[in-house]
Design a protein that fits this description.
Radius of gyration of chain A: 21 Å
Organism (chain A): Actinomycetospora lemnae
Strand content of chain A: 25-35%
Structural class of chain A: alpha/beta
CATH class of the largest domain in chain A: Alpha Beta
CATH superfamily of the largest domain in chain B: Type I PLP-dependent aspartate aminotransferase-like (Major domain)
Mean pLDDT of chain A: 92
Keywords (chain A): ATP-binding, Cytoplasm, Disulfide bond, Nucleotide-binding, RNA-binding, Transferase, tRNA processing, tRNA-binding
Radius of gyration of chain B: 21 Å
CATH class of the largest domain in chain B: Alpha Beta
Oligomer: heterodimer
GO molecular function (chain A): tRNA-uridine 2-sulfurtransferase activity
Shape of chain A: globular
CATH architecture of the largest domain in chain B: 3-Layer(aba) Sandwich
Strand content of chain B: 5-15%
Number of strands of chain B: 12
Shape of chain B: globular
Distance between the termini of chain B: 34 Å
Number of helices of chain A: 8
Strand order of the largest sheet of chain B: 2-8-7-6-5-3-4
Family (chain A): Belongs to the MnmA/TRMU family.
Number of domains of chain A: 3
Subcellular location (chain A): Cytoplasm
């Protein structure tokens, strides 16, 4: 096949490209330039959008002896990932930009362009498995990225290749070193790639007008003030800025965000427990379930799993959890996996709109 | 392989490569006093005389440098500093909107760090700076302009300016005039003395010489503050140990290229006109940017710059590259990301059309087979790039 390997400049995508080439594909490396004004050098372990990262990707392509180009996707990334990210926070929800980037950039804009240019597939360094059209968790449970790929439609997965799905990270690093790829020891990237400082609050504060309001506890008492609901995410404990401890001395958590009334609801940990979810815009990798179906639902990128029953309700999805989950933030994806023992197969996903206790 | 990116760098002429490799084995610092030093000095001075003779300058006007970027920086900054030092009112820098970044960014640096005010001269739809435009800017700021820099020939669209007329206008206002002639020397007739310019940049690797060897031609009476301080070489304007092999090879290349201009102009014009005619026959909505082909002398003979509506330039480049055809989308930035060209935008192209542009630049070893290869590939390549453009627009 003719394969376009998306190369971020990190170790995973470099090894993925190498494996695709070794598998006999005709591979072309492409680095996606996602920032209109990339920094010259990478900052710590954050981001993948600096010119240094682009150069790392190029050096890996040199070692693999594959053609390499840089595609300017900055405008699309701004429109489809960064601006919705800001808008979601402003609306009191907690977005996942990696997931959005997979859905809108890597396996939409890039895949469509690649197909038009004569490529058969886009290969990436994601840790996930594709198995006869089914998306499955990776062999490495710590690195599994099926959650951030769970939003892809079947036609998108049809054009995807994930050559790292059967490997654990340490193997990938060792393989990179053995292949002479300079990025073998490069630290994993963390946080949001377009906020290299790691200061999400500061990033949002520059883009969202302050909308001060009250912090209210379950009794209705005003226990503090804030400068905007976008500063918070459901389940957050630190940085609430409440001077007075709760009467029972127990820590307070963000329970809910109400942007219209500018209210941040806070309370004890047990009030974070939710037992039902309503999620919108579902995507199914299997036939949409006609009846209630048992599954395991995952509600954030790391952790947040519970057995549940899912039922399609109009255009939405109703999820009833078998056991309560804590810190379920509207705006995150709910990804549905097959129940154990075959629990590594993705059935579909939807965006969490609301939760119930 | 079809190499049509000679404006980026052109293969070394065999005689220039021979000169270089032969000289690399010799020892001698041209500033040393012993016989090895004298031999090195003699080789440099003979090379200097060769370069001077080829471009109508005096040997003492040849300031050797590492290439176009250094020569441009030295001229723009050095002439600015010297003129401002002589007359504190002169703090304006005038450059054209179509300049290479080596001039544009040097001028912007002066504005950002040296208190200069930058005047950018607009270009017309064909990329030319009209003398009248320069006259107006100079008249608007009498006694305030320190230096004017307008390129001889544009690296992207190949437009040749009337440098002599522009230099005359600058001199009427008492302002020194620099021209970036990196694309011009060896491609069109260039005579330093009759052009009237005060400073002219040239570089080896655009005319068949080595990368890393170039020169600023600087009139004997031009006052220029150095960028590099040290041993006082090159009239004390450009310190640094002279690159003897590079200079010798540069001289060989300049002499050969200049001697061949007339013949090569005829050959390249023929190939280029053929390429444009046949590409536009294959892709009827492709448009030629720059000066029309029926005005030879106003356009570099080896330059064909075309826009393909609905295509991304980097898609076209990648598809052609896969077929063994090497060309350029214009000027690339450090990250290798194709941004719409400032030259095309200055000429009034919209951003989409600017992004969908390719530069084919022919050179001394180009053949009709190269043109055939482009003509054969361009139809399917444009069709495919257009589908990719549509996909991007609708995904």
């Amino acid at each position: 096949m003719r394969v376009l390997a998306a190369m971020s400049g990190g170790v995973d995508s470099a090894v993925a490209a190498a494996r695709l080439r070794d598998a006999g594909h005709e591979v072309t490396g492409v680095h996606l330039a996602l920032s209109a004004k990339p920094a010259t050098m990478r900052e710590g372990a954050r981001g993948c959008c600096s010119i240094e990262d682009s150069r790392d990707a190029r050096r890996c392509a040199d070692v693999l002896d594959i053609p390499f180009y840089v595609w300017d996707m900055a405008a699309r990334f701004r429109d489809d990932v960064v601006e919705p990210f800001v808008a979601e926070y402003a609306a009191g929800r907690t977005p996942n930009p990696c997931l959005r980037c997979n859905e809108k950039i890597k396996f939409s804009a890039v895949l469509e362009r690649a197909r038009a240019l004569g490529f058969d597939a886009v290969g990436t360094g994601h840790y996930a498995r594709l198995d006869g059209g089914l998306l499955r968790r990776a062999a490495d449970p710590d690195k599994d990225q099926s959650y951030v790929l769970g939003v892809l439609r079947p036609d998108q997965l049809d054009g995807a290749l994930f050559p790292l799905g059967d490997s654990v990270k340490s193997e990938v690093r060792a393989e990179a070193a053995a292949r002479g790829l300079v990025v073998a020891e490069k630290p994993d990237s963390h946080d949001v790639c377009f906020i290299p400082s790691g200061d999400t609050r500061g990033f949002l504060a520059e883009r969202i007008d302050a909308a001060p309001g009250e912090m209210v506890d379950p009794s209705g008492a005003v226990v503090g003030h804030h400068r905007g609901v976008h500063d918070f995410t459901v389940g957050q404990r630190h940085g609430l800025g409440i001077a007075r401890p709760a009467p029972d001395g127990r820590p307070r958590y963000v329970l809910g965000l109400e942007p219209v009334s500018r209210t941040v609801r806070v309370g004890p940990a047990e009030d974070l427990d939710v037992t039902t979810l309503r999620a919108t815009d579902p995507v199914w990798l299997v036939d949409p379930p006609a009846d209630a179906v048992a599954c395991v639902v995952q509600v954030r990128a790391h952790g947040g799993l519970a057995p549940a029953t899912v039922r399609v309700d109009g255009g939405d999805v109703e999820v009833v959890l078998d056991e309560p989950l804590r810190g379920v933030a509207p705006g995150q994806a709910a990804v549905f996996y097959r129940p154990e023992p075959a629990g590594d197969v993705v059935l579909g996903s939807a965006t969490i709109a609301s939760t119930g206790r | 392989m079809t190499y049509l990116d000679h404006a980026a760098t052109t293969p070394m002429l065999p005689e220039a490569a021979a000169t270089l490799t032969e000289a690399l084995g010799r020892v001698g610092n041209a500033s040393s006093l012993h016989s090895a030093g004298r031999r090195a000095r003699r080789a440099v001075e003979e090379s200097r005389e060769t370069i001077a003779a080829a471009v109508g300058a005096l040997p003492s006007e040849v300031v050797l440098a590492t290439g176009g970027t250094e020569a441009d920086n030295l001229a723009v900054k050095g002439l600015y500093w010297a003129r401002r030092a002589a007359d504190a009112r002169r703090t304006r820098v005038v450059v054209s909107a179509a300049e290479h970044h080596a001039v544009l960014d040097a001028a912007e640096w002066l504005a950002g760090h040296e208190g200069a005010t930058l005047d950018v001269l607009p270009v017309d739809a064909q990329g030319r700076v009209l003398p009248e435009t320069l006259r107006q800017v100079l008249a608007a700021h009498p006694d305030e302009v320190a230096v004017v820099s307008v390129m001889w020939a544009n690296n992207e669209v190949g437009t040749v300016n009337d440098v002599r007329a522009l230099a005359e206008v600058a001199h009427e206002a008492g302002v020194p005039f620099h021209t970036d002639a990196v694309q011009a020397v060896g491609a069109v007739p260039v005579d330093f003395a009759t052009s009237g310019v005060d400073a002219l940049s040239l570089t080896g690797h655009k005319l068949g010489g080595p990368v890393g060897a170039g020169a600023l031609l600087l009139r004997r009476d031009a006052v220029c503050t150095p960028l590099l301080h040290g041993g006082g070489q090159e009239r004390d304007v450009r310190s640094g140990t002279l690159d003897v092999p590079g200079t010798m090879s540069l001289a060989t290349a300049v002499r050969a290229a200049v001697a061949d201009v007339e013949r090569r102009t005829a050959v390249l014009t023929g190939l280029r006109d053929d390429l444009v005619a046949r590409v536009t026959a294959e892709v009827p909505d492709a448009r030629l940017n720059g000066v029309p082909l029926d005005r030879p002398g106003e356009r570099l003979p080896g330059n064909a710059h075309l826009s393909f509506p609905g295509c991304e330039g980097d898609s076209l480049l990648m598809l052609l590259d896969a077929r063994g055809i090497e060309c350029s989308t214009g000027s690339a930035c450090t990250a290798g990301v194709a941004r719409p060209s400032h030259v095309l935008l200055a000429m009034g192209l919209d951003e989409d059309l600017a992004r969908g542009s390719l530069r084919f630049s022919l050179g001394h070893n180009s053949t009709s087979a190269d043109v055939d290869a482009v003509v054969e590939a361009i139809g399917p390549v444009v069709e495919r790039a257009r589908r990719a453009g549509d996909a991007l627009a609708h995904s």
